[in-house]
Amino acid sequence: MQWTHEIDTWIVVIGVLCSLSCALLGNFLVLQRMSMMGDAISHAVLPGLAVAFLITGSRSSVAMLTGAVIAGLLTTLFTQWVQGFGKVDRGAAMGVVFTSLFAIGLVLIVQAADSIDLDPNCVLYGAIELAPLDDTLFFGSRVPRAVPLLALVLLVNAAVVALFYKELKISSFDPALATALGINANAMHYLLMVLVAVTAVASFEMIGSILVIAMLIVPAAAAHLLTDRLGAMIAVSLVFGAASAALGHLAAITVPPLLFTGVQDTTTSGMMVVVAGVLFGTTVLLAPRHGAISKAWHRWAFSLRMLKEDALGLLYRFEELPSPPGPVSIVTMLCHAKRTGPLLARLAVIRLLAEGKLQRQRNGYTLTAAGRDQAAGLIRAHRLWESYLVDRIALPADHVHRTAEGLEHITTESLAQALYERTGHPATDPHGKAIPNPDHKQN
To answer: Is residue 197 a contact partner of residue 256, using CB atoms and an 8 Å limit?
Structure first.
């Protein structure tokens, strides 16, 4: 299918308005660990829609939104009631409420579909491709009927977030603090739930009740991986939401012909969520701080740093022996003592050589002055921790080595000095070994 300027442009505009409205509220759902509440409300409003259809006999926006708001509030109230009365966690309470209401809504919709202009598939999956065909006169121009409604919903959401930004922020991060500051956290919660219900219903006909869940949560969750600042998180989620809508429609009309013979296009709403999922997956992998690759890199770099320090510590302890053995094959010793692979051990030695902390000898390696200085600081921290654990916590002397071995890698000079003072300026550790002075000269 070729791009039709007017129709496809309106489809993208409608998709962007839906995505922005959902993403804006989704940030607060994610921060409050209430992602499933968006799922619950988007499903549980179906009874409200069905009752509104049965009473009014039409798909009037006012009737739909009224039914949605009532159903959304009932969902929230029922969830809190089940959680408190039944003594179950919030996830289980939401599961009970929204599945029950969703089932009731489906039954009512199917029963009403024969007498009322209502397509259950449209409610569930959306029909954004048909939205440009249902137009109306708006300020002298013909525009899709969904555009003014979705624009109004987006403006209302943006206005509420801007007006109550501080209250929503504090309530999302710490409801107890909000209450202490005089902010009604429950009022903020119900206000958010009303907006979610209205936004979900306004988006039903475009992207469906099932797919609106993804647009509520996925952009906000992806943004949360990139930043810990709420303002930046909201901005990034809006960019992700808009990109999901625009790229989703483009992918819906261009990707299927490339993958399947005889297939011209696919549903735009579904592809919007696919693109959102791809963006989220990419963020999960590549986010600079919370991404999987970044975390794996930092874990590996920390393991390498610890192994380098362990190598320096081993060589320092060899130099303390009454008869030092001279150059040592440190790679083999690291593999045996730290149970690490030869590749990582060899890399640690290579890095220490490059940093000028080891020097290669004919039969192994010895410490340089810089390496000995760092090693003495590490041994000082280790032995001060052993003294502290024995003197202050009363652990047996033969039980403290493993603990001190881990703590030595995260001990700063100031912390080492505090340990030195707390333990009464010891000259030796509980095993009788000398504790290096701060200038790293032995006592």
So the answer is: no
